[in-house]
Amino acid sequence: MKNGLAWAALGGAESRSLSFRPLEESGNMLGGWSHELLTIQSDVLAAMGDLRRVMDVVVEGALRAIPNADGAAVELLDGTDLVFRAASGSCGASVGMRLPYPQSLSWACVESGNPQICLDSEHDPRVDRAACQRIGARSMIMTPLMLQGTAIGVLKVIAETPAAFENRDLLTVQLLAGPIAIGLATAAQADAAKRFAATFDQAAVGIAHVAPDGRFLMVNNRFCQIAQHGRDELLSARFQDITHPDDLELDLKFVAALIAGRIDHYAMEKRYLRKDGGSIWTNLTVSLVRKRDGAPDFFVSVIEDISARKSAEEAAMQDALTGLPNRRALLQLLSSALDRSRADHTPLCVAYLDLDGFKGVNDALGHGEGDKCLVAVANALKAELRKHDIVGRMAGDEFVALLPDTSRIDGLAIADRLRRAVNSLAQRNGWQLGISVGGVIADGTVTGEQVLIMADRVMYRVKRQRGDCQIVDWAESFAAAA
């Protein structure tokens, strides 16, 4: 792992392999961690030009960003000593304390240029045990503060319990070290440091600075990998150009609220359009950096790749055979459709479909042919529906169609189309197969489960009577299903 993980790419040496608990990959945990880093970034940017204040912001922020941290400190070289220049938490009283060469693990960190870990100060021969006891440091992690390729100090985080830290905590310490190194480099470069302070090119998450009009100002390597666009391509584009059209409206609403000062940050799941025409799901967290007069300067965006989690979620919501939404997905989609129907005062038609004679196909031709039949039926149903309609597989040979903004008359016409499509498919393939369709126009006061139960009953009435499709209004559904 490179020390270039710090906020500014200031170079660094190879670190040794450290024994930590594995980094959590939960989208929610990473999202909260990113938000905390963004908060620290905003405070650091506001303090740029004041090195002492930057150091205070970092050591205070470390306690919030690292769950098990009890104290944090910045130690800088002064002759042959390391001196505590800023401290927080249980280290707070240590400001001004000197660590003579070479009596501390901090010195090992400076001399090696590598991050260091102490799992338990009571058993680690490299540490000053008495000094650790004074500040209650049972375990520690630290990273060197680099200036022009040379370590000139350390950022240290301690805990009062042994083995308290994990991989993400080391990454956090390395990220937090960047602003201090920049402040040490020069206060005269405030404008340049302002941007570099929040950009760590080798970070595990994507980082982008974006102008108020959407133009990319800076992007790191990870964001280029996530978006699958080259750096030059991104820097000549706007975020609007690579945002999925279905996610753009919400993104722009959040941006407007940020600029207006109604919110101080936002997080959303959104898709970016890749160069190959595909898209990728990300978790986006955004804050706004303002100029001294309060005008918007640029956005700082943290972009996490959540495509693996989304794929798992989609797989759990998808019927494995037909690719249609499964029962779980249908219930969620139906709930959303009912909400829209109530809000828009438009009718929602829910049709239940059950194949007639499917068992005979399975028995006569085998389950392989039965599976082929179900896939073909699913495709035939989809082909007959409108763009905004949804069809899913409930179980076995049962399907449900959600038809938004559809009256009873229109629902009957669609149901008849579906029946004819299945009949035609069966004739072409030599299947003794038909389909029964029954449905209801949902009432605004009912739940999705209630709607499905009633549509199912109407469908079975059609099946028993071997009649035409039936779509009934909610008030009539009880009589129709009797």
Short account of what is shown:
With 482 residues, the chain is an alpha+beta fold. The chain has helices at 27-47, 51-65, 105-112, 129-135, 167-185, 190-196, 221-227, 231-235, 245-260, 307-316, 327-344, 358-365, 367-384, 408-429, 448-465, 474-480; strands at residues 71-78, 81-89, 98-100, 116-118, 139-147, 150-159, 206-210, 216-219, 265-273, 279-290, 296-305, 348-356, 390-395, 398-404, 434-441, 470-473.
The class by helix and strand makeup works out as alpha+beta
Shape: elongated
The N- to C-terminal Cα distance equals 69 Å
Strand order of the largest sheet: 3-2-1-6-5-4
Strand fraction equals 15-25%
- Overall helicity: 40-55%
Low-confidence stretches: 1-27
Mean pLDDT figure: 84
How is the biggest beta sheet arranged? 6 strands, antiparallel
Number of helices: 16
Q: Total strand count, please?
A: 16
Question: How large is the radius of gyration?
Answer: 31 Å
